[in-house]
């Protein structure tokens, strides 16, 4: 059965009271992720974050905590969920696109912060490879690419989860030019030469 990112899906995994703050979209957990990503991008850019591109944005949950930190940030989101775009697209600047569409889609100039959270491990390898170069080309600062592997304990949504080794993602993200920073964060190729040796892992 094809996975449906419909209203029931977002209610179950993002707003189910039984999950409380352990839900994917738990407000405190999300706020910490956003704060980490923004702080890391600003550290490397040496200025406030101005632009954010969210690929696989769902309902655009990152927008509110981003605006709390940076009220004037420009946010642009893309997702394959017709439900999410139909309901929230106009007011949250969300647009319909699959990850694989980014093989050709370049909707904006490189952004300060690129977000691709909880997406890659649900994609078929062909679609992943088609869209992956865009993550590097559209990131001018830091990318938050939250991805889980078969080495991780997965308690949440496992329907369609691809149990790939961590090496699979490390090699592919590095191949398109992204530089690992840890904690799901990757540095834009454009900033690689400006970091100190001990700011990066041994193999970066």
Automatic annotation (TrEMBL):
<dbReference type="InterPro" id="IPR029063">
    <property type="entry name" value="SAM-dependent_MTases_sf"/>
</dbReference>
<protein>
    <submittedName>
        <fullName>Methyltransferase</fullName>
    </submittedName>
</protein>
<dbReference type="GO" id="GO:0008168">
    <property type="term" value="F:methyltransferase activity"/>
</dbReference>
<keyword id="KW-0808">Transferase</keyword>
<dbReference type="InterPro" id="IPR013217">
    <property type="entry name" value="Methyltransf_12"/>
</dbReference>
<feature type="domain" description="Methyltransferase type 12">
    <location>
        <begin position="53"/>
        <end position="136"/>
    </location>
</feature>
<dbReference type="Pfam" id="PF08242">
    <property type="entry name" value="Methyltransf_12"/>
</dbReference>
<dbReference type="GO" id="GO:0032259">
    <property type="term" value="P:methylation"/>
</dbReference>
<keyword id="KW-0489">Methyltransferase</keyword>
